[in-house]
TrEMBL record:
This is GNAT family N-acetyltransferase. PROSITE patterns: GNAT. SUPFAM superfamilies: Acyl-CoA N-acyltransferases (Nat). GO terms for molecular function: acyltransferase activity, transferring groups other than amino-acyl groups. Residues 15-184 form the N-acetyltransferase domain. Pfam families: Acetyltransf_1. It comes from the Bacteria. Keywords: Acyltransferase, Transferase. InterPro entries: Acyl_CoA_acyltransferase, Bact_Acetyltransf, GNAT_dom.
Length: 184
């Protein structure tokens, strides 16, 4: 789980958001990877084409998860942003970033996060930032979920401000290697 996010210069009503299931996301994987690379190539992520290819590979497996959902935003025929999510299984998984999250939550990840919607990626291309697109994507991604969680990097200041502004609750302190948020 990478769980990064970027905040969202265009009027938000000028973009179209499409909710996708796993097969729909895989059919649009090239567009998602395009947004991924544009979104995460700058600070604080500094990702490159190899990282975008790794994302596309993860997407192939993630899209098969039960309950997988994605949202793709398009503006003027160009992909502008996306989000991906799925319910966190029980028992709480290991690997990826799960072990670190469980450690940070004092071994309580199973009780607090299993069964909730896990937002894995939230990305908005630089050309589409600054007008609330990230909030719209996140809202559509989570609209049917009573509880959600996500994580981001402590250096992702814009993303942290977004989640706080939207009322998400921070579960980890300021000196951790990852920031975990929940929404109930």
């Amino acid at each position: 789980m990478r769980g990064r996010s970027i905040v969202t210069a265009m009027p938000p009503e000028d973009s179209t958001l499409e909710r996708l299931t796993g097969p729909g996301a895989l059919a649009r994987a090239a567009e998602l990877a395009e947004v991924y690379l544009a979104s995460f190539s700058g600070p604080p992520w500094h990702e490159d084409a190899r990282d975008a290819a790794a994302f596309a590979e993860r997407l192939t497996a993630d899209a098969l998860r039960p309950g997988f959902v994605a949202v793709l935003a398009v503006h003027d025929g160009r992909p502008a942003g996306f989000g991906t999510a799925w319910p966190t299984p029980s028992p709480f998984p290991s690997g990826r970033s799960y072990d670190g999250v469980n450690r940070l939550l004092g071994g309580q990840a199973e009780a607090r996060l299993s069964g909730t919607l896990e937002v894995d990626e939230l990305a908005v291309s630089p050309h589409a930032r600054g007008q609330g697109l990230a909030a719209r994507i996140l809202g559509l991604l989570c609209e049917d979920a009573p509880n959600c969680w996500l994580l981001t990097a402590p250096k992702a200041h814009d993303a942290i401000r977004l989640y706080e502004r939207l009322g998400w609750q921070r579960l980890t302190g300021p000196d951790t290697g990852v920031v975990v948020f929940t929404r109930s």
